Amino acid sequence: MKRIRSFSLAILLCHCACAADLDAELGGDTVEQPAEGRVGPNASNEAREGGGQLTTIDATDEEAWVYFDLETGAQVEVDDPMTDLGWDLGFRRFHVATNGGVSGNAGCEVALVEQPFDAVSTIPTEGYVVDQEDGEDDNEDPDYAFGQWYDYDFMTHVLTPKPQTYVVVSGAGNVFKLAFEHYYDEAGTSGYPRFAWAPLE
Amino acid sequence: MSVVLATWLAAAPQPAPDGSGLDAESRTVVVTATRTAHEKNDAPIATDVYDRQTIEDTGAENAMEVLEETPGVQISRGVGGAGVLLQGLDPKYTLILVDGQRVSGRIGGTIDLSRIPADDIERIEIVRGPGSVLYGADSLAGTINIITRRAAKPWEAEAHSAYGSFNTVDLTGRVGHRRDRYAGSFSAGVHNTDGWDADPSNESTTGPSSRQFEASTSQRFTSKGMFALDGWAQYLQRTTRGVDALGTGAVFDRVNRSETITANVTPSASWDDGAFRFTASYSLFRDQFFNDQRGSDALDDSQDTFDHIAQGTATLTQQIERHVVTAGADGQFEFLSANRIDPGNVGRQRYAVFVQDEWMPLEALSILPGVRLDYDSLFGLYPTPRIAVMARPNAKWRLRASYGRGYRAPTFREMYLRFTNAGVGYQVRGNPSLQPETSWSTHVSAQYFPWRWVSISVAAFDHRLQDTIVVDTVDDSDDALTLFGYDNIGNAESRGVESSASVQWGPMTLDGSYTFTHARDLDSGRRLPGRARHRGTVGARLHRRAWGTTLRIRSAITGARTFYVDENDDDVLEPLDSAPFATLDVRLAQTFTRYVEAYFGVDNILDAGNATDNPLVPRSYYGGITVRY
């Protein structure tokens, strides 16, 4: 919560003083322009029409997580996710973890915004959550900060991303908006989450 | 006494209770309900029968096409092929027999009746109500016994060719020879259809293409005295192809190649007032399944399944004054090898004894108590009693009532399945601790023959199923969206009324039927999905022997069926009624000389059906010629 408070203060300063440098306030690393094409064994980027990046993760493995760093826009290798601060997002099938809470120690936080990706231009001041221990539900997985980012049709078993956007504070303190677009590759294979994302300033 | 015993004794020289070897021109004798022979209208348990002539009249190319217009029978078409919903219960609750013996090859509970060629069928008997008292597991809704064809004439030869819509080709040939102590036949057939698609807006096909060939032989030897040896064997191979497009965007080219080997041999002996027979049978169903994902091999899938059933059944029937006692023993060995089950090879044995007494205390009364005791190596002992009564107050009436127990053993798949459908996104796990489903059923019926040319029948049925096996979600999912499992947590009932009438007037036969079925899940109170509450059939057959012309018109009207879909994305299934529909088939056959018959027909003239809830073959035209000697 300390981070949330300081982050909220930064937003407030930004609005009042108009010239506050968010990077400076948050002390974050510089956000690089993501490379296009393959950005790791299981990740690829492409430019998104209308701005931002489209990243597709091959998260088909039932066991292994695929880790992604938003600052570099690339997949990163992680030996111990609990001590490694270099990853922001982790993917395994439809699970999306963040490097915060019970999943890591980089302090990633996520806020849900009920707006389309292109309509999100401001940083919310509240509503940030981190990955938490499993609560009272039907599964034994942690309660990830991304929550249930999809709708699941239990008749057809088709998974469809909800039309919503997430604001992610990375481990380095930078802010991004992110929206899932699909869960299947071109051949219809599941386990390929594709999301639009862009730095939010 | 005289009716039953007379018919039974008349059949006694034909000791094969499966009816094999019966002269084609003899009166219609049925055997399935009691394992003894009875004239159809005098059987203690009501039995519907399609004899060879009727099968030929329908123009059916396989068993499914024969059965699809039967009163009280609804055909379900799914991944397992064409199955029979009898009295509102799923295909898995109807036991399918060939010559009185169990066959392998249930997929999703269904034995695909469309793979059994009509050319090999002498007769199909349909007995409603639990038959577990004589046949053991899986006969809760009823029993369908497909009796194979034997040579009927000293020399016989038959060639049949037909061509129809969707490039459907049927070519069959048969030769047979019969003399005093020998009857034998060989037959073979080739069948092709290109399949069909009821919804061209997507890449999925509705009806798969199919290529099938089969060959079979029957052999029967009789001694001068009391002994006979009877056998039948068939090899059948079918390859079906279809396309499945999923909501995920994945498209699969699906290929199934199934092979069946079915064989039985029956030594038997008969004497004045009794008979003994032993039938050894073997049935192999091999199913090779390939699912080829377009544009990727990530979700490609292949399976190879071997399902073996070997069975030996001994039956002794003896008349003792006013009793005809049938006692028997049965041993069954089933073995399944498949890569979707864990362990990959599983087997079980069943041993059973059964006894039945056809007692006629009065001339007009038959009482038929029976019981069977099954020992299943996986589940232990299962007794299945039945009592049936038939009264004949006069020649015009037959009144019947029966009460019996049925059970259905869980399939190996239900117990041991380990299946992940990564393409769709779910897992299914079998449950090794499943127990059999059981039922108690009551049947009451009346048949009325006011004149020789009119018959009317009305029947009421009530099935109550306990511990039904249902697929349910289980909550220990870790890696999948949904994990399904099987459990004995259901209770269901199906009750209803079946009525039919037939009028034969000169060359014209008219018949009609109406069936009301109310099948529901007793826990949720909801109707069982896919059943029509109301169903009716009407038919007319005009046969002018002098002209050699037979015209047959059949129609079936099926009322609304309830399905359950999540219409408003609240993860709750809401009932949705499908539209009623009617089918209309017409067939005109003309004989030229005594050897040649040509025919033309149109099936599903009204073009009923759709790709989602009613995958009927669209309107189709066919014509053919049969040469018989």
Concise overview:
The complex is a heterodimer of chains A (201) and B (629). By secondary structure, chain A is mostly beta strands. Chain A has two helices and 14 strands, in the order H-H-E-E-E-E-E-E-E-E-E-E-E-E-E-E.
What does this protein look like?
The complex is a heterodimer of chains A (201) and B (629). Chain A is mainly beta. Chain A has helices at residues 2-17, 22-26; strands at residues 37-38, 43-47, 53-57, 66-69, 74-76, 89-92, 95-98, 109-113, 128-129, 150-153, 158-161, 165-169, 175-184, 190-199. Chain A has one domain (31-199). Helix content of chain A is 10%, strand content 33%. In chain A, strand 6 (89-92) and strand 7 (95-98) form a beta hairpin. The model of chain A is unreliable at 1-28 (pLDDT under 50). Chain B is globular and about 65 Å long. Residues 1-26 and 476-480 of chain B have low confidence and may be disordered. The two termini of chain B are 41 Å apart. Chain B has one domain (2-628): Maltoporin, Chain A. Chain B contains five helices and 37 strands. Chain B is mostly beta strands. Chain A binds chain B through residues 60, 62, 93-94, 138-141, 151-159, 183-191, and chain B through 246-251, 293-296, 298-299, 421-426, 475-482, 565-566, 569, 571, 573.
